[in-house]
Specification:
The protein has one domain. It is an all-alpha fold and about 240 residues long. The chain is globular, with a radius of gyration of 19 Å. The chain contains 10 helices and no strands.
């Protein structure tokens, strides 16, 4: 049976970094779209850091919680997609690339900021960092100072994990993922239109890719890149 106490402890550490990662990712799309000429997201209240505007009850809360509770080997979820009217963008070829890239750039920036905070905690109390890294949720604080630093360090680790996952996952070049929209904007007309035509089946393709990994792309490319970035943002630690 799942350990409910461990599950709740994990949620308390992971929930806020995940919500921040998703909120900033989606708000970044809307903000860049607004700057490039499309006010759709702004009019619908999606250019905001209020997480309630971006959270999908099933994709952001219930499904990830279920996967964590059942100790699934992979995590999957989604937020409410930010509506973008690409016809209103000033440059029909270039601006969609900027809009699609915004979320990924913001996630990598958040991962870098979390890594910086993590290292600052290490300067203040190296033992808190060691406990957070090597004991994880089982880390026991010594003194009131570590009661703050250890959970904060764990949240930094969770923030790096979620932001790297969101960034790399969204860079998969299959529309409607950000990487797919970037590829559509960068490719010549023929290949661009061919790739754009698979958008209606894109999510099903991505799910199948993660479930079956027929070409070894997930294990051979996606996971190694995620692990490399995770180590880099943690300061070279495994």
């Amino acid at each position: 049976m799942p350990d409910i106490a461990t599950f709740l402890h994990r949620i308390s550490v992971e929930a806020l970094p995940l919500v921040i990662a998703i909120t900033f990712h989606e708000a970044a799309h809307g903000y860049v779209a607004l700057k490039k000429g499309d006010p759709t997201a702004k009019m619908l209240g999606r250019v905001t850091l209020n997480p309630l505007a971006h959270i999908d009850p099933i994709g952001t809360i219930l499904l990830p919680a279920f996967l964590i509770l059942t100790r699934s080997p992979f995590l999957f979820g989604w937020a409410k997609p930010v509506p973008v009217n690409f016809r209103l963008l000033r440059d029909q070829k270039r601006d969609p690339v900027y809009v699609a890239s915004a979320g990924v750039v913001v996630n990598l920036a958040l991962a870098a900021a979390s890594g910086l905070l993590f290292r600052l905690i290490g300067i203040v109390d190296p033992f808190a960092i060691q406990k957070a890294l090597y004991r994880g949720l089982a880390a026991q604080p010594e003194g009131s100072f570590q009661m703050v630093l250890i959970p904060l360090a764990l949240m930094c680790v969770a923030s790096i994990k979620w932001n790297v996952l969101l960034a790399i996952f969204n860079l998969i070049p299959i529309p409607p993922l950000d990487g797919g929209r970037i590829a559509v904007g960068l490719l010549p007309y023929g290949p661009s239109q061919a790739l754009a035509s698979v958008e209606r089946y894109g999510i099903l393709i991505v799910i199948a890719l993660f479930m079956f990994d027929p070409f070894g792309i997930i294990r051979g490319i996606i996971y190694p890149v995620m692990n490399l970035l995770f180590a880099i943002f943690l300061g070279g630690l495994p």
